[in-house]
Structure prediction request, 399 residues.
Amino acid sequence: MLSREKLERYADVLLWGLQTARKGRFKKDEIVLLRFDPAAVGLAERLQGRLLDMGLNVVVRPGLSPVMEHQFYDKSNDRQLVFLTPGEKQLYQNLNGNIYLHAPESLTHLSDIDPARIGKAAVARKPFREILQKREEQGTFGWTLCTVPTEELAKQAGLTLRQYAGQVVRACYLDKAEPVAAWKQIHKDAMAIKRWLNRMDIRSLRVESKRTDLVIRPGEKRKWIGISGHNIPSFEIFLSPDWRGTEGVYFANQPSFRSGNYVEGVRLTFEKGVAVRAEAEKGEGFVRKQLAMDPGAARIGEFSLTDRRFSRINRFMANTLYDENYGGRQGNCHVAVGDSYSDTYSGDPAKLTRAMKKRLGFNDSALHWDLVNTEKKTVTARLGNGRRKVIYENGMFTC
Prediction:
C-alpha cells in the first residue's frame, strides 16, 4: 500500500531516528539487528541495503507468523517457554543498533492463551532488555521502530487499508518531499519544551479529566525527555516518575491490543503507588493478570504528554505506537504500568545502579504497557515554592 517513493522516505526517516536515538556515532563494522514482521519485508529490504552501504553488519531476524507464535505459547512446556537461544546473550552484548518493523497479520491470535504464560516468557527475556538498556546508557547502542500498514491493523481500527496507510504517511511526514527536515524541526521545537519543563522545580503533577484524577510525583533527579528518534512516529514528552507518589484514579479511554488480547475502558485506582484496583469494560481478567506479572507490574513506570501541534494522528489506530502519540483535538496523556526508563535520570544514566534506582523510585518490571487517555484534560504542577502552574491544557503545553 506504500509506494516505492514512500518506502524510500520511510527508510530515510528510520535511519535518521536510529542515528538520533544513539548518543555515540555509528562506526563501520558495528552490528545492527533488523527485526521485522513478514508483511514489512519491502521496507526491511531497503533498510538492509542502506545499512550495508553504511558499512554496518546487519543481523536480519524475520518475526514469527501468528500461527507460529500461538504454537509457541500453546505447545511449549515450562522449559521451552523460558528457553534462551545459545549465543543470544553474546549478540545483545555486542549490538550497536536495533530497528523493528511492526506489521502484524493478527492482533487477537493469542486471546485464548493464558496471559501468565506470556508473562513467564517475557520475564525470562528481561535480562536481554537490561543489557541493551545498559549499552544505551553508555552510548554504544541506539534503537528505533515503526509500523507498516496491514489489513489486520486497518480492520481493527475500523479503517480501510488505504485510509490506514494515509494516516501512517501523514503521521511520519512521508507526504513531505524532505520528511527528515520536518522531523529535525519537530525535534528542535520539542527541545525548547523540554528545557522549559526541566527548569521548573515540579514536586507533583495533578492530571484531571472527565474520568481521571491522578497525582504523580516526578521524584528526585528526573528530567523530561522525548522525540528523540526512538519511535517513528513519536511526539510524546515524558518522564519516569517516582512510582511511590502515585495516588488516585486513571482511566484509559483508548482501547488497547496487547499480547493478542483486546482491552477497553481500563480504570486503575492507585494507593501509595500501587494499582490496588483494576477494572475494565472489556478484558478485565487479562488486565489483572498483566498487573500480577511481577511486583513492579502494578506500579507506574512512565508518564507522558503529547502536544497536538506536533501530532497529525487523529484516528484510533489499534497500535500503541500511534495511539500513545494521538493528537486529535485534545492531545493525549498516557501512563505506562511496569518498567521505567533510566534515561529520564538527570544525572549520568551509566552510573545509575540498581540500588540507586530503587532509592529514587525508578520502577522495575518485565512489563511496560502504555494506557492512553485522550479526554480533554488539565495538568497542573505543584512547584517547590508552593505555587501551582498549569503546564498542559487544550491538548498543548502552555509554554
Summary: The chain has a mean pLDDT of 96. Residues 188-397 form one domain.
